[in-house]
Amino acid sequence: MEIKKGIAVSPGLAIAPALVLDAQEFRITQRRVNPSDVPHELELLQKAIVGSIGEINLLRAQVAQKHGEETARIFDFHLGILNDPLVRSRMEQALAEQNFSAAYAVSMEMRRHVRDFLEINDQYFSERVKDVYDVERRLLRHLVGGRKEGLSRLKSEAIVVAHDLTPSQTASLDRTHVLAFATDAGGLTGHTAIVARALGIPAVVGLNDITADASPGDIIVVDGNRGVVILDPDEHTLEEVRQQQEEHIRVVQNLSEFRSLPTITRDDYRVNLLGNIEFPNEVTECIANGAEGIGLYRTEFLYLSREREPTEEEHYEAYVNVLEMAGERPVIIRTLDLGADKFTQARTREPERNPFLGCRSIRFCLRHLNIFKRQLRAILRASVKGNPSIMFPLITQLTELRQAKMILHDVMEDLEEEGIKFRRDIPIGVMIETPAAAIKAATLGREVDFFSIGTNDLIQYTLAVDRGNERVASLYTSTDPAVLRLIRHVIRQANRLKIGVSLCGEMAGQPEYALLLMGMGLKKFSMNHRAIPEIKQIIRSTTIEQAKNVARQAMRLETDWQILNYLLEETRKVLPGFSCSSGH
User: How many beta carbons lie within 10 A of that of residue 349, not counting itself?
Assistant: First the structure.
């Protein structure tokens, strides 16, 4: 048995034989044709382009119908390349002037795109390289043939293991038979990861050498919650994983019996469970799983799923869509968290040496007021359609918060002058995701209506551990005493100031932390909608006094492992058969 740690990009747990894909490479040599054959090659090229555009449009329509327009916009990049007059003219010029074959002209032009993107030394453009290869392979299949992997027509259950998957391959996966996938390459913000989350396919990427270590037909386990892949698991491990799967299925089935009931403890302590979303169509799934609202709407995916900056109207349409689906339920809209590993497409930037400590989130917005104001205008215009709040990310200084609020008020004045209706009393909050913000919670709290604790970043900034780096993944832990003390401090300060406080990081959806967080005084949890049933069951099976006792005992322990083991033990008392789901 071998356990490999990668980057979790889509949650879920799966066991199945490995289907190992070889990279689909077309060996295109530098071939020239007779001048008399150039018109024929031009005709072949044109047919390949038209055929590829037709395939992508069909795939885009299918994805839009099943998973929403935002997800489908991922394929606009592919269409943009194929419809680019300059790209076409360069390929046609290679045919007409140098007498290259259509296949070689395609390969030469696409590889030029790849080189240009790699030279930018920017993670966003590095992720787009696989999209260019996707377009190249599609064109070459039309020109020289080639067998497709057939991932949409499998006859038995499998876990796909590949060096990488293109967005087209991911969107075409047969969800009946493909239970999960694991890849050598990839990151959190790639289009493949976005599609995987939208489809609900458990996925772990960034495993480096999974294709070398996994053999076709071998049983493997993919844990998309922890970012772990287990090769050749022993019987004990398999039994544990099956029990986790069975327990999850049982909890989901039981949800239909109590999802409409309030989330209250056995001694009538009220808790709110909210959902995190990236795309508008996820609102329906959140509500179906018992969410009482949207605790985190990550709006930067309006940028990452298209090849240009969205207009104010496109922002507005997305927010109205979410608010109307949510009805009277609260929706917390986080302003853009661009920068670090997420970049806009139409802007040229000099790469930063350490982007996670650079110009990201609110810092980016305060430097690019046209982008920031465009989003704020759209949010305010949409505010009359529902019950929204605005949340600023990565606030570390009081001056940043005041600047952001001042800009918001400027936008409000502009809308008033234009006679556009909006909610002037829209609640304002901040994400607490750095030690600086946590320590200054009392100061920040006097100027906002609520806090939302973003534990994903809070943990990595507190422990100085990149949560997307598998080399130091073992050091990234939610139960480090320093992290827990910061969380407790923020909750206490919010409660003292009588402002709202929620937790929207991955911790909120991991059952082993439910008692601890509730015992610290947390009343609002926001999570991936698939985690809601289990968290709800735990809360309804305990008392607030029991949760407070768990929190007191846990905070007396000295190490992260002691705390985790204690929390697991206490969670099993409430939920017999529970097995750990958090990375540690």
Answer: 14
